[in-house]
Design a protein that fits this description.
Distance between the termini: 144 Å
Radius of gyration: 47 Å
Number of strands: 7
Oligomer: single chain
Strand content: 5-15%
Shape: rod-shaped
Largest sheet: 5 strands, mixed
């Protein structure tokens, strides 16, 4: 019988030899299975066109993946802050800023300033002039107080005429104390009326910087 022959042949091997044959058989079966699995076909993943992922430039590239547009810049307005402030001058501010923001940019008001007639919450407009007066200031008989104007206007009080202003009116101007106010009056009495605002430079107490502060506030 075949079974008896196999048993006789196996009986010719020792247990150790039989164990080695068994291990070898297992290794051969495992190797055959490994190569069989590797030979099987593998599925291929194909990315559909128009997929939002990826950064290529082909049909499958993301749509709208470019840089985000920069936010639009806020427009600027240019205003002139003059009068009884610490740093009179022309300033650039953002559209939507208010009068109080412009006065702060000019260093704020000086001690003794009168802002009761200024609408500090008003929106700024391009070319606007903000005129801050000193308390007690009167111009050509007008009431006291601060004024604002746009487009170069000087407000309800108007500029002070240096040829007719009183000592108190001149004293109310920024940078002009009672001593300099009296010198201006003395000058016009000795030399006649001022022909232009620039003639104030003829007085030794007024320089270019002070004249620039006075120009929006005075006239002849």
């Amino acid at each position: 019988m075949i079974g008896e022959r196999i048993q006789e042949r196996l009986g010719a091997f020792s247990r150790r030899e039989l164990a080695g044959i068994a291990v070898l058989a297992v290794i051969m079966v495992a190797g055959a299975g490994f190569w069989y699995v590797r030979s099987l076909p593998r599925p291929v993943t194909i990315q559909a066109p128009g997929n939002g992922s990826g950064s290529g430039s082909g049909p499958g590239a993301a749509v709208g993946a470019g840089p985000l547009p920069a936010p639009s810049a806020i427009p600027l307005v240019v205003v002139d802050v003059a009068g009884w402030v610490r740093h009179p001058g022309v300033y650039e501010l953002h559209q939507g800023d208010r009068v109080i923001d412009a006065i702060r940019r000019a260093g704020g008001v000086r001690p003794g300033a009168d802002v009761t007639s200024i609408n500090l919450a008003a929106l700024l407009t391009d070319g606007q002039q903000i005129l801050v007066w000193k308390k007690g200031r009167t111009a050509a008989g007008a009431g006291s107080g601060s004024t604002t104007g746009s487009g170069g206007g000087s407000g309800a009080g108007g500029p002070i005429n240096v040829n007719t202003a009183t000592l108190d009116q001149l004293d109310s101007l920024p940078g002009i104390g009672p001593t300099l106010a009296q010198r201006i009056i003395d000058y016009r009495e000795q030399h006649g009326p001022f022909r232009s605002v620039e003639d104030l430079l003829n007085d030794s107490g007024i320089g270019d910087a002070r004249l620039a502060d006075l120009k929006p506030l005075v006239t002849v």
